[in-house]
Amino acid sequence: MTASLDRGAMGPAADPALGRALDRALDRALGRAVRGPGFSARLAPRALLVASAALAVLLALAVASICFGDYPLRFDQVVDAIFGGSGGQSYIVQRFRLPRAVGGALAGALLGLSGAVFQTLARNVLASPDVLGVETGAALVTVILMTLGLTGTAALTGGAFAGAAVVTAAVYVLAYRRGINGMRLILVGIGVNACVTGGTSYVLMLAEVHTAERAHNWTLGGFNGLGWEQVAVLAAGLAVTLPLATGLAARLRTLSLGDGVARALGLPLERSRLLLVGTGVLAAAASVAVAGPVAFIALVAPQIARRLIGRPDGGLVTSAIFGALLAVAADFAGRQLAGDAEIPVGIVTALAGGPWLVYLLMKRGSRSTDG
Amino acid sequence: MDEEALGARGLVVGYRGHEVIDGLDLALMRGRITAIIGANGCGKSTLLWALSRLLPSEGTVVLDGRDTATLSTREIARRLSVLPQGPSAPEGLTVADLVARGRYPHQKWLRQWSEADEAAVREALERTNMTAFAGRPIDELSGGQRQKAWIAMALAQRTDTVLLDEPTTYLDIGHQAEVLDLLVELNVSAGRTIVLVLHDLNQAARYADRVIAMERGRIAADGTPDEVITAETLRAVFGVEAHVVADPHSGAPLVIPASVPPAVRRAAQPTS
Fold first, then answer.
1. Distance from CA of A126 to the nearest CA of B (A)
2. Residues B225-250: pLDDT tens digits?
3. Helices in A148-294 by DSSP H: which ranges?
4. How many other CB atoms are found less than 10 A from the CB of residue B15?
């Protein structure tokens, strides 16, 4: 006796009005179906709209940040310089301002992506790489390497990844108690973050004065002095992690339903989690290795993306775009607000993002223990 | 013409020397509703999880006539769905989005949303009467609607066999009946094989074709509700004294615990 499961999808009694309401609800909740031979996907118009708008704002901000500076440039001069102009103004754009804007955007995009992966995985908006100590772990190893005189790009990037991975593993192991509870993960992360930050300060204290000052400036997080070589590292980081994360998005969505349900749906749990955490760690480490630990972008960017898209997860690409937008905006603000002196981007994001973290913690704390 | 949908041969679950289930044999027939009952900690949920291969176990689990050790987790998920107890969705997730995720075992990297996916989601929403709630966030729904949304997700998997771990616990009486009626409807009209762990003996008696009573990891009684829900079995399995009468509505056995009402007790109290 085999049951017929493929009996018509809908009974003839289906109410047409209800059917149309369902169409609309499915379109809104899932996006529109796009299908071709051997290929099908869902495209959410709202997510596309949000992403394109954010991209446009990002572009405008980047151009503005190239125009303004000690030597103000006009829009047409900037455009001319970008498309291969020569002369003093073009030199300023090509050598300094353009790599700074592009590098800043890429560093922010990596952080936004990392934040989206971590937050969705832990099902908690606070579980982002800056709160959990992933960024400071990368910073600690980078500072140690700097004080040892190892300043090669490969060494710093590799060291940053190792530091981020070790701290992530430590937080995970310390927070593991027959599974991972979101709030315990965050509290352990905050503690580990504090320890690692203390360790970084200690290394800076021991270092020779000149090296220490350079390393210290780097730990403030900044895009000043980014050149094309650093941009290439960031671009490579994004070129690896963004397709990886997007390819793992279906697994990420499934994992966010909880371990039991995810396994029931046939997901290889531990392997998927390891791949996703690895991607998130790699993205954060690539950013930190070049631009230093810029706090709060990873925390805030995915939340803005989620809120505007209106879905609790996904939005990996949109989170990356908002990360880039926040980074360029904070860098721009840091240069404009303080007159002659320049405030490093990491300080701007900390000053602006700190209150946001306090607000989130208070909002969470007032609710039950739900992780 | 009875055919086994899901079965276990020599199933062992647990640590060495700490076996929760030690050598259990079972055959669950296609198109039937089976309820597993038993006291807390008797291993009934463990059995359900081991049958669905979510818990590592020794011995053999047979699904649709094939040893599950030869099937990938994805293939198992296309044949058998299992709903754990008290699942929780990410904040703000809509019903339609949740139900669509039940299609995961059927999707491929380039085939993320086929017509079959969409049809399965629609059917699951309609069968559970959740169409009108498709666009609503799950955390805004009542407990019963939430449970139906999760059942819809499991249905979107389009599996012949559906396992549920205490689907009615924490629901009020109206929603309990609604969820169980829905499962019966699925069984009758779509021929799904349903296995569920239940706490409520009267629900097991009324809704299941077959009741399996477990005690310390073993099957203590197995048969029709009339055969299993008896005063003797209840004494042996749950350690309770109870009367079992015929439910005047359905004729199914109805359990009435033999505790003494307070008024009778007070009357029996010696007055000082």
1. 14
2. 999 999 999 999 998 899 999 998 88
3. 153-175, 182-206, 209-219, 228-247, 249-255, 259-264, 269-291
4. 7
Q: Give the H/E segment covering residue A88.
A: helix A88-92
Two structure tokens written together for A290: 């070049």
Closest approach of chain B CAs to the CA of A68, in angstroms?
41
Task: Enter the tokens of residue A49.
Answer: 């709209």
Cα separations in angstroms, B261 against B257, B267, B268:
11, 10, 11
Please state, in angstroms and rounded to a whole number, the distance separating the CA atoms of residues A121 and A266.
17
pLDDT tens, position by position, B25-56: 999 999 999 999 999 888 999 999 999 988 88
* In chain B, where the domains are located: 4-92+158-268
Q: How far apart are the first and last CA of chain A?
A: 45
CATH of B4-92+158-268, one of 3.30.390.50, 3.40.50.970, 3.30.160.40, 3.40.50.300: 3.40.50.300
Residues with Cβ within 8 Å of A27's Cβ and at least 6 positions away in sequence, in order, are none
Which of B137, B244, B212, B82 lies closest to A312, judged by CA?
Answer: B137
Q: Give the H/E segment covering residue B211.
A: strand B210-215
Neighboring chain B residues of A265 at a CB cutoff of 8 Å = 77, 101-102, 104-105, 157
Are the CB atoms for A255 and A272 separated by under 8 Å?
yes
Asked if A9 is an interface residue toward chain B (Cβ–Cβ < 8 A), one would say yes
Mutate to test the interface with B, among A257, A269, A270, A368 (most CBs of B within 10 A): A257
**Chain B touched by A337 (CB under 8 Å):** no
Under 8 Å CB pairs connecting chains A and B tally to 148
Residues 22-51 of A with CB under 8 A from B: 22, 24-26, 28-30, 33-35, 38-42
Q: Calculate how close chain B gets to A242, using CA atoms only, in Å.
A: 16
Specify the residue for token string 């400036």. Answer: A217
Radius of gyration of chain B from Cα atoms?
A: 20
Interface confidence, given as ipTM, is 0.89
Instruction: Measure the CA–CA gap between B29 and B32, rounded to whole angstroms.
Output: 6
CATH class, A45-366 region: mainly alpha
**CB–CB contact A14 B126 (8 Å):** yes
